[in-house]
């Protein structure tokens, strides 16, 4: 079981012969259930277009997508099941909140798929608990009067409440302050683990991608041009920069230390604790 994309292509303007009008071109990939997948690429490289295929918001004009037993192709019709299975958190998802209260907004999806009243309440409570939104404190409040970070959490809860198997997060922390970003990322990671979700995570922040993802796909001009573990992808610093992408903070620091002749080891993505150890050891060498 898992997700298989078999040579899918989508062109926004079919009449246009130019490559620039391509959303995505000839993309194949295979993802096992329960994995955290990072998607990176320059602006306009096709990340959001690709993600919108995962819940059939866009249908592939060529190729097909298989998610467990569901097949999505250009003839797919019954899309309700796939939309329930794959939850999408778009960029700035709070723009889509529209009900008078937090409860009503989160209950909207579960109600729509015909859950009973008690089940709806249970789904809302569980989703709010997952996002660390206190039920009694927030359920009757208007989403509009919440802070940016809280609104974002409510918006994500509306998707989680549908109990999806796959969660697509298209830049879920964009526009939040650094602390809210860090908190939300930690919550999303916890939700992935406890709900055993397959997660696709799109971000321009290479540190977040490195921390969150078990496997990474790099896109450019509508194609996948590189893939691998965080360690593999972020060791290809020259190629990444040629694609207009950055590298995690730890890589930049190691490169800088190497340039100054202070570090002779391998340039690779490491977490902050390991980076601190490298620096600590270098200080030790200096004081010898
Ligand atoms: N609704 C649309 N109509 C026409 N072309 C579009 C549309 N949406 C995207 N495109 C084009 O498809 C290509 C891929 O866009 P997409 O939004 O998937 O990129 P992205 O990687 O998500 O970019 P970003 O990092 O800016 O979010 C771009 O060339 C873009 O201009
Ligand atoms: Mg996008």
Strand content: 15-25%
Helix content: 40-55%
CA radius of gyration: 21 Å
Ions, cofactors and other bound molecules? adenosine-5'-triphosphate, magnesium ion
What is the name of the CATH architecture? 3-Layer(aba) Sandwich
State the CATH class: Alpha Beta
Count the E strands.
10
Describe the protein's architecture and organization:
The protein has helices spanning 47-54, 80-85, 102-112, 117-130, 135-138, 148-160, 178-194, 206-212, 230-233, 237-242, 249-259, 272-287, and strands spanning 2-11, 22-32, 36-41, 62-67, 70-72, 86-89, 166-170, 198-202, 215-220, 223-228. The chain is globular and about 65 Å long. It has a 6-stranded mixed sheet with strand order 6-7-8-3-9-10, sandwiched between helices. The chain is built from 12 helices and 10 strands. The chain has a single domain, classed as Rossmann fold. By secondary structure, the chain is an alpha/beta fold. 41% of the residues lie in helices and 22% in strands. The longest helix is centred in the middle third of the chain and has 17 residues, at 178-194. Helix 3 (102-112) crosses helix 4 (117-130). The mean pLDDT is 92. The site of magnesium ion has 3 residues, from helix 1.
């Amino acid at each position: 079981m898992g997700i298989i994309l078999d040579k899918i292509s989508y062109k926004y303007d079919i009449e246009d012969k130019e490559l620039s009008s391509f959303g995505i071109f000839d993309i194949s990939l295979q993802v096992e259930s329960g994995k955290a997948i990072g998607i990176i690429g320059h602006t306009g490289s096709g990340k959001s277009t690709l993600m919108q295929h995962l819940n059939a918001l866009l249908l592939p004009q060529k190729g097909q997508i298989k998610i467990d037993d569901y097949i999505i192709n250009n003839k797919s019709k019954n899309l309700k099941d796939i939309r329930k299975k794959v939850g999408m958190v778009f960029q700035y998802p709070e723009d889509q909140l529209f009900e008078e209260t937090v409860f009503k907004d989160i209950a909207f999806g579960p109600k729509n798929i015909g859950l009973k009243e008690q089940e709806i309440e249970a789904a809302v409570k569980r989703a709010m608990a997952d996002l660390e939104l206190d039920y009694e404190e927030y359920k009757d409040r208007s989403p509009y009067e919440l802070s940016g970070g809280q609104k974002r959490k409510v918006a994500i809860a509306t998707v989680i409440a549908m109990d999806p198997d796959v969660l697509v997060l298209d830049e879920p922390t964009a526009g939040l302050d650094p602390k809210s970003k860090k908190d939300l990322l930690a919550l999303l990671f916890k939700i992935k683990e406890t709900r055993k979700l397959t997660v696709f995570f799109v971000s321009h922040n290479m540190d977040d991608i490195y921390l969150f993802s078990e496997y990474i796909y790099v896109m450019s001009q509508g194609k996948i041009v590189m893939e691998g573990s965080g360690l593999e992808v972020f060791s290809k610093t020259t190629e990444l920069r040629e694609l207009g992408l950055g590298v995690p903070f730890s890589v930049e620091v190691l490169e800088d230390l190497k340039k100054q002749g202070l570090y002779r080891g391998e340039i690779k993505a490491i977490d902050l604790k390991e980076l601190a150890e490298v620096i600590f050891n270098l200080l030790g060498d200096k004081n010898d």
